[in-house]
Specification:
The complex is a heterodimer. By secondary structure, chain A is an all-alpha fold. Chain A is built from twelve helices and no strands. Classes of the chains: A mainly alpha, B mainly alpha. The complex binds protoporphyrin IX containing FE.
């Protein structure tokens, strides 16, 4: 029972931190103005074009493809495997599992291997390539280590030492109504869940913010139309309305 | 020629192999000369600092403003709340390393701090230490480096000053970053912070002071400018027998021509200016230059100062209003065009008093290209047959703006013009042109003699590409559409075994090939009835007659 209360509380907190943390950061990105038009050109001339550009970046890592093929392969493998795995996990939170989630099950099962392999590749880059080693902080390696351990502990439960998956499912569905059902006292499960909760907790305060952040990147999300449409930020407008040259001259 | 090693170029495939790191290879530098309090004052920056005794004292805390640490952090905090780019870019970099081999300064110097992400990290690690949960937490327990954070110290400030002046804000890294993180935005912010703690850059601030006082970067006063323009008219007249005017401050003209002041005197810039004048003349376009706004370059962008950039841009607005023009056209200049194309409407708009049938502002190539395509200019391509030309895409035009009405027009329009006036054209290797173009090595406020080593080494990737087409395709000349590129190249290409005159302006090529209406042959010129002064007098007199008659 201690186990299920501990993890129950942990996951509630982690979920709140994840959701509210990301929401808060996104709110900041939203609120801070972009005073100048700085799309990296050639850039789309229409809003629709910007959607296409962003879609290509997010789904195909288009710019990365241009810059580094090895990293692109590893990155695509890791992220798509991760996406499949996350989709696959949705069934632990649903009483009636959606069709899509059913469909991805067999793929998700093997995606775990791909993810771990890709992550090891990414980690090796950080160790072996001198330029990448130079820019790597311990936390960058730790992040990859964390994901690798999540992958390995998960794969172990799937392929080596099965855990009582129905019990896990009952536990998580119960959490939605604050009822604490028992969890299997399986060491791999405990490691797996602890690491996942850690990942959720650090998401909003780490570089993982690249996922929501990319949508706010002014070099990628702006329309190339500065001559046609005047773009003026709130703080710059004050210089105009008060007819001043410098911000420190503005009335407070 | 220099006390450092000049990189060698082989010409093999036109691409410099990515070098291994050489830690600290540019650490012996101290950044450009520091700006005096006088210059800082003119631009609205704090002045309560001491000029360092020598370059080795740059960044010593007793030379900085009082409470420099708090004031640097306050400025950083201020900027991240005013620039989404800065806030987002500081947060979302995953240190994937895609940019690490993309910077010409890294390739040319091998110094790891010149890798874009490492350059950003000089600022980011301070941001992380003071403004993020992770940095504050690990800072408290004494291990900020675990999360790539660090305390703000004198040494950090020295690194900022040195390495943020080894960035030409060319945005090549931003093209290759999966999130478009643009180191230019970071280096602009860093320079803005440095300006607020007593470490302004003399080159940029002194120049901006001249524009504020006199109207151009050179400090060329009105009378001297008028003289220069007359000299150019005379040159064209002696060459062609045709009086092509370069009017100054002519009220009621249709077009205000804004051009970098280097166009008034430097080679090969000035040949470009004569080219624009000939094109306008042939198309019957009524234009004028302005002595008040005799500068297209806007160095406010280099130091990341929106306020100073705007102050400079407002001169153009005032000139346009005072002269009563209907259109604004910009000459060949990279960052001037970025500021014009991307920012002018923001900084000095709205332009509702100008003729809305034309782009505001318009690039001179947007006039020349359609005119050539429509056959409105009489061209003798063979005039350029002594050259095999290649084209250097300027970074600010390639990645920070557009020319023409379609996506990527900035690559096609200049090439179309060159091909319309030259028989022999060859592109440099694919990874060195268009939006993957390499900076000349002198952009972003680096074009100063106190940064010569940075400039020479930073030019290596472009020089390698040029060497390749020289050896394999017989290229003899490289055309540019940016005043900084032209100045930088003419200065550094001798280090790589080329000669200065191999750099040409795009409109210089146009100028050579164009045959003006009424142009005389060489023999006819020798027998001309009037010299330039007489011809000009007669032109003015004939105008007065027309004016009388129409009264
Ligand atoms: C919109 C969604 C996302 C996009 C477009 C995206 C894109 C990218 C790209 C382009 C890279 C750099 C190349 C690479 O290492 O793969 C990267 C790195 C990374 N991403 Fe994502 N990502 C997304 C979501 C996520 C999520 C949800 C996670 C959660 C765990 C994640 C974790 C990582 C990690 C750990 C790295 C660093 C890899 C390394 O250290 O080498 N990403 N991401």
């Amino acid at each position: 029972m201690f186990l299920s209360v501990f993890f129950g509380v942990l996951f509630w907190v982690a979920t709140l931190v994840l959701v509210l943390g990301i929401a808060y950061k996104v709110f900041i990105y939203w609120k801070v103005p972009a005073p100048l038009k700085i799309p990296t050109t050639p850039a789309p001339l229409t809003k629709r074009g910007v959607w296409v550009r962003m879609f290509k970046e997010v789904t195909l890592f288009y710019s990365l493809f241009r810059s580094n093929k090895l990293l692109w392969v590893l990155g695509i493998l890791f992220h798509y495997a991760l996406a499949l795995i996350i989709l696959r996990h949705v069934r632990y939170f649903q009483e009636n599992v959606w069709l899509v989630i059913d469909i991805v099950q067999p793929f998700g099962k093997y995606a775990g291997f791909l993810m771990v392999i890709a992550l090891i590749g990414l980690l090796l880059r950080r160790i072996l390539i001198d330029r990448v080693r130079y820019i790597t902080a311990p936390s960058d390696r730790a992040m990859l280590g964390l994901l690798i351990l999540i992958g390995i502990s998960g794969l172990t439960m799937k392929f080596v030492s099965h855990t009582d998956i129905l019990m896990v499912k009952t536990f998580f569905i119960g959490l939605r109504t604050f009822s604490f059902h028992p969890l299997p006292a399986d060491p791999f499960l405990i490691v797996h869940l602890t690491l996942v909760a850690t990942l959720m907790l650090i998401f909003p305060i780490s570089k993982l913010m690249h996922a929501p952040g990319i949508f706010f990147s002014p070099t990628r999300n702006q329309v190339d139309n500065p001559r046609e449409k005047r773009h003026l930020s709130r703080w710059a407008k004050k210089l105009e309305t008060q007819d001043k040259l410098y911000l420190h001259e503005l009335d407070k | 020629m220099a006390d450092y090693e000049i990189p060698t170029v082989t010409g093999e495939d036109g691409i410099v192999d990515v070098p291994s790191l050489e830690k600290g290879s540019m650490g012996h530098l101290h950044g450009p000369w520091i700006s005096k309090p006088d210059f800082q004052k003119e631009l609205g920056f704090p002045t309560d600092f001491e000029m360092p005794a020598g370059v080795e004292n740059y960044g010593d805390s007793n030379t900085l403003v009082e409470n420099w640490k708090e004031r640097a952090l306050d400025k950083m905090d201020d900027l991240r709340h005013r620039y989404r780019s800065l806030q987002v870019f500081l947060d979302i970099c995953v240190k994937c390393g895609a940019c690490t081999d993309k910077c010409h300064y890294y390739i040319g110097t091998k110094d790891p701090k010149n890798m874009p992400v490492a350059r950003q990290d000089l600022l980011r690690k301070v941001y992380r230490r003071y403004f993020t949960f992770a940095g504050k937490f690990f800072g408290k327990i004494g291990h900020p480096e675990f999360v790539g954070a660090t305390e703000l110290t004198e040494d950090v400030v020295k690194d900022w000053y040195n390495y943020y002046h080894q960035c030409s804000q060319c945005r090549r890294c931003s093209v290759f970053c999966p999130y478009g993180i643009d180191t230019a935005e970071i280096s602009m912010a860093a320079r803005e912070i440095l300006d607020h703690i007593g470490m302004g850059q003399k080159y940029c601030t002194e120049i901006m002071g001249k524009v504020h006082k006199i109207g151009n970067n050179l400090g060329l006063p009105e009378a001297a400018l008028a003289d220069t323009l007359e000299g150019l008219e005379e040159d064209i007249y002696d060459d062609t027998g045709v009086l092509v005017e370069l009017p100054l401050d002519k009220k009621g003209s249709d077009i205000l021509l804004i051009t970098p002041s280097a166009d008034f005197f430097a080679e090969p810039h000035v040949d470009g200016l004569m080219g624009y004048a000939k094109v306008f003349h042939e198309l019957g376009l009524d234009f004028t230059l302005s002595s008040y706004a005799s500068e297209g370059a806007n160095f406010g962008m280099f130091i990341g100062s929106y306020e100073n950039m705007r102050r400079l841009a407002l001169r153009i607005r005032k000139a346009a209003i005072d002269l009563g023009v209907k259109r604004i056209v910009f000459g060949e200049c990279g960052h001037a065009w970025r500021v014009a194309y991307s920012f002018l409407n923001t900084l000095a708009g709205p332009w509702d008093f100008l003729d809305q049938n034309y782009p505001i502002p318009q690039h001179v190539l947007e006039i020349t290209e359609p005119a050539l395509a429509a056959g409105k200019l009489n061209i003798d391509k063979s005039a350029n047959d002594d050259m095999v030309v290649t084209f250097h895409d300027s970074c600010n035009i390639a990645r920070g703006s557009r020319i023409g009405s379609y996506e990527g027009g900035q690559f096609e329009v200049p090439r179309n013009v060159i091909k319309a006036v030259c028989n022999n054209y060859v592109d440099m290797p694919k990874d060195t042109i268009h939006d993957a173009t390499f900076c000349c090595g002198g952009g972003g406020g680096i074009l100063t003699d106190d940064l010569m080593e940075v400039r020479v080494k930073g030019a290596q990737p472009r020089m390698e590409a040029l060497k390749h087409v020289t050896e394999h395709h017989g290229v003899t000349h490289m055309a540019a559409i940016c005043a900084i590129c032209k100045s930088q190249f003419t200065k550094v290409i001798p280090y790589y075994g080329f000669t200065m005159d191999q750099i040409v302006s795009v409109h210089q090529l146009v100028s050579s090939a164009i045959i003006l209406t009424g142009q005389l042959s060489e023999d006819e010129i020798d027998d001309m009835e009037f010299d330039y002064d007489e011809a000009k007098e007669r032109l003015i007199a004939s105008r007065e007659v027309v004016a009388e008659e129409s009264k």
